[in-house]
Prior knowledge:
By secondary structure, the chain is an alpha/beta fold.
Amino acid sequence: MTNAPALRALHVPGTPLVLPNVWDAASSRAVRQAGFPAIATSSAAVAHALGYDDGERTPVAEMMAAVARVSRAAEGLPVTADVERGYGLKPAELVERLAEAGASGCNLEDSLPGSGDLVDPAAQADFLAEVRAAAGDALVINARVDVYLHARGGDLRREAVARGRRYLEAGADCVYPILLAAEDEIAALVSELDAPVNVYFGAGGPSVQRLAELGVARISFGSGLHQASQAFTERLIAEVREGRDPF
Length: 247
């Protein structure tokens, strides 16, 4: 039985679903024990934990196995998986693999791994529509819009809104303009889309409280927690290397 309805219901503009993205069973357990209502993976964090670079360099079987471990540690909480552009899987197989891994939602991005080239929005909308058709209501689709990540000039908000509307019409539940951080732009995009919007939480950007005030429905931390955890681990190891007590 899918947790998609519960996950979908957590996307409330102004009362956002906050997701400290995880990378393994231990971090999944920590998020669950902290009392969060859902768990999300970060493809970059999972990839680095498994010894790969981000950008669909992780074999799909290993990525899905990692999502399954996260789901197992979630102990019934909804899990949404960052699966980049789907690792080359056909929509029906992608949906099937996500279900087998225990995921009730997924992120799907609209740029090509490696090159950063934006996918034609009509083609991306068709892909999302096929995923929706294969999943029915049993999957929460978070459609990532990468125009701010791979900015190449022009009216970024106009393009982000146009892409977001296409993706929502194709069946996406939420739109994720990753790296959008300017408060006025966030507020405008939320207003123009009139649908759940996911914003990436980054250093120097708006606070969680401020993002809620701007009408955001979902807040992701991406690979930020994993990067901070790794940096802390490296400092501990350096202490040991210098012959000092790391604790």
